[in-house]
């Protein structure tokens, strides 16, 4: 099949490379010329394990990129993988999706056959039908269901394991209103359907809601284990032993029970806030989801409080290990390192930081130029009165004697990754 992908960020690039690997011809449209140039040179614009290999194999062959929407004229299916950031009140800002739909609509009439437009972005129920569809119709002069198909196919990949997640998903969700659009999605994902991946065939609004429900459930699950963990800490109980035990109950499940400094990233914070805003807009107050956000917002503060119990950091050098919102990514959007660094700077600390990913480091340097960024853990720890571990990069699990370089001995671990040992004043966030 010939597939167009509009937007080449974390989702668009991964989906493009993986669909090319399925054997499709893929063309990626992005407004950012440097992203397009990188893709055409076979380089990934983002850090994602496995992506370089796929781009190496397919870029310039079955995968190429352009800034020109007119190049979509020959495709069968077009995915919109555009950002849906949060407004100040938490609701989603659909401006970029609307702009992309407008540009796509202008070329849609030139596409032969019955093209299917698929919304891949995370959007609140009704957006595909009430916002994207009408823009496409207005700009193209065509009719949904008669001249072109409209679908929603939310994406569940996680950053840091995006390629693996896309290639081996727990499920596929196809939201459609007509059979031809559904058939188009089935053809796109044929290799996964052959592998018996469960497929949820549903309506547009249901598909949109499934995505929010999925993220809200996972985020709330982490907030619940964080709340339980905070109680555990008060009673000197190890929350990880408790989590392992409750995870054995099949109704609970062991995944996403790692308590600590909380959830960050480009999705959970934005999507839970969007669902809360969407509910309130209809007059429903989602108290539990708001509580999940509140618990999450408090975890970095708890981490700083634990530090305060041991050191007055004013004028002291303090080491932050981990800047990306999770390991194996360069993404710092809503990273827990942000409120941690803010808190340290407010206390007058001299902050030094290290992340194994250079992209994450550079993004943080832009945000916090007053922080000193070092190239490895040892010089970061050296001479610091305390260390705060914010991201669970595997290399932090190997740190041991490096902590002896601290001028003090305090380690506050927000991710349960450092080995507790003699000679360290070790504080786990929930253990
Ligand atoms: N990041 C994730 O892990 C993830 C996972 C599942 C779903 N989602 C959802 O997918 C959507 C995309 O997220 P993302 O993280 O990939 O975004 P992103 O910010 O990484 O990438 C968006 C890309 O779109 C490009 N763009 C902006 N305006 C454009 C336009 N008018 N035409 C063409 N390209 C344009 C940007 O240059 C950028 O490269 C969001 O709705 C997000 O919630 C994200
Ligand atoms: O037990 C856990 C698991 C995760 N986290 C944190 O939760 C955040 C999100 O992690 P993760 O879900 O692994 O990464 P994301 O890339 O944000 O993926 C989430 O958001 C994506 C965008 O919507 C969805 O597609 C994915 O299914 C969903 O897992 C990170 O800060 C993690 O440190 C914890 O604190 N404890």
UniProtKB/TrEMBL annotation:
EC identifiers of the protein: 1.1.1.22
InterPro entries: 6-PGluconate_DH-like_C_sf, NAD(P)-bd_dom_sf, UDP-Glc/GDP-Man, UDP-Glc/GDP-Man_DH_C, UDP-Glc/GDP-Man_DH_C_sf, UDP-Glc/GDP-Man_DH_dimer, UDP-Glc/GDP-Man_DH_N, UDPGDh_AglM
Keyword Iron-sulfur: no
Enzyme class: oxidoreductase
Catalytic activity: UDP-alpha-D-glucose + 2 NAD(+) + H2O = UDP-alpha-D-glucuronate + 2 NADH + 3 H(+)
Chain residues that bind substrate: 156-159, 211, 256-260, 264, 326
Active-site residues annotated for this sequence: 267 (nucleophile)
UDP-glucose/GDP-mannose dehydrogenase C-terminal domain boundaries: 319-420
Keyword Protein transport annotated: no
Key words, A-Z: NAD, Oxidoreductase
Binding site for NAD(+): 30, 84, 122, 159, 270, 333
Single GO MF annotation: UDP-glucose 6-dehydrogenase activity
Biological or metabolic pathway of the protein: Nucleotide-sugar biosynthesis; UDP-alpha-D-glucuronate biosynthesis; UDP-alpha-D-glucuronate from UDP-alpha-D-glucose: step 1/1
PANTHER family the UniProt entry points to: UDP-GLUCOSE 6-DEHYDROGENASE TUAD
The family this protein is said to belong to: Belongs to the UDP-glucose/GDP-mannose dehydrogenase family.
Protein name: UDP-glucose 6-dehydrogenase
Species of the source: Haloplanus litoreus
Gene symbol of the encoding locus: aglM
